[in-house]
């Protein structure tokens, strides 16, 4: 087993319990154990029956039977020569981005320490430049088009009234990824997402128990924003018929003219 294997990961007990309701005990235990192995192997667990059966302490035949049941239930997926779990892949991707960002921040801090202190006669100029840079950074941060998924999640949570105690389904990184999909997959602007969440909250007594509860609201919003503008005469009213009276008068005039 690799020394670089993931030593720990965020686990969601409520999701595991609710997601395995109705499953037999041995399937629940096996699923939880296999999830640990998938995370340990960075999302790609070798589909080696002898290896996994040995770790579980069961026969290869028994593991193959449990494996098929977990696949049928959609708990694990087979990708080539590996077993994986879709949510585990998303969580690991989010964790990788977080770790990369932390490493980048540490690298930036180290480079700043190596900079030579500016001469005193440039102090005021640099101070003004720093103030302008800080002002620009604040303006960019407050520009909704520059929000990242974390900022969008915090704005949505504020819009639905979640501030102090954060429910499990609103916890990052899963919630962060979920709200980010509204922007990327549905092509919704950040401000529109926040406004829709606020309007939805006004129609209910309690905040939604998670971002998934707002999926319908966001799909409806996407449909409204992508609808083509209505053209005159296409509002659903029955199209005006030709002037039947004028046509009949013309016919009678021809008949009358022919009989004279």
Annotation field: number of helices: 11
The CATH architecture assignment of the largest domain turns out to be Orthogonal Bundle
By secondary-structure content and strand pairing, the structural class works out as mainly alpha
Task: Please state the overall shape, judged from the principal axes of the Cα atoms.
Answer: extended
**Rg of Cα set:** 31 Å
By CATH reckoning, the class of the largest domain would read Mainly Alpha
Average pLDDT number: 78
Q: How many discrete structural domains?
A: 2
- From the N-terminal CA to the C-terminal CA, the straight-line distance is 109 Å
Characterise this structure.
The model is unreliable at 137-141 and 234-240 (pLDDT under 50). With 260 residues, the chain is mainly alpha-helical. The N and C termini lie far apart (109 Å). It has helices at 13-19, 25-40, 49-56, 60-72, 86-114, 123-142, 149-159, 174-184, 190-202, 215-226, 244-259; strands at 45-46, 77-79, 82-84. It has two domains: 1-109, Arc Repressor Mutant, subunit A (Orthogonal Bundle); 149-223, no CATH class. It is extended and about 100 Å long. Helix 3 crosses helix 4, helix 7 (149-159) crosses helix 8 (174-184) and helix 7 (149-159) packs parallel to helix 9. It has a three-stranded antiparallel beta sheet. It contains eleven helices and three strands.
């Amino acid at each position: 087993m690799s020394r670089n294997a993931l030593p720990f990961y965020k686990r969601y007990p409520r999701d595991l319990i609710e997601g395995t309701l109705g499953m037999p005990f041995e399937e629940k235990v096996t699923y939880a154990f296999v999830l640990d192995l998938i995370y340990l192997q960075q999302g790609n667990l070798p589909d080696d029956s002898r290896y996994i059966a040995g770790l579980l302490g069961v026969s290869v035949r028994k593991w193959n039977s449990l494996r098929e049941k977990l696949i049928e239930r959609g708990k694990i997926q087979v990708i080539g020569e590996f077993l994986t779990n879709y949510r585990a892949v998303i969580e690991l991707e989010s964790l990788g981005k977080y770790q990369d960002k932390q490493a980048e921040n540490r690298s930036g801090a180290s480079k700043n320490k190596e900079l030579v202190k500016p001469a005193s006669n440039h102090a005021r100029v640099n101070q003004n430049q720093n103030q302008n840079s800080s002002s620009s950074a604040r303006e960019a941060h407050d520009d909704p088009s520059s929000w990242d998924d974390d900022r969008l999640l915090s704005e949505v949570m504020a819009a639905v009234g979640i501030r102090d105690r954060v429910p499990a389904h609103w916890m990052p990184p899963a919630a962060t990824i979920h709200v980010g999909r509204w922007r990327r997959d549905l092509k919704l602007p950040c401000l529109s997402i926040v406004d829709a969440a606020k309007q939805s909250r006004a129609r209910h007594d309690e905040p939604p128990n998670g971002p998934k509860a707002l999926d319908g609201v966001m799909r409806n919003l996407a449909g409204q924003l992508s609808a083509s503008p209505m053209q005159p005469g296409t509002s659903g009213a029955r199209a005006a018929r030709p002037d039947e009276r004028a046509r009949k008068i013309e016919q009678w005039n021809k008949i009358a003219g022919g009989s004279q």
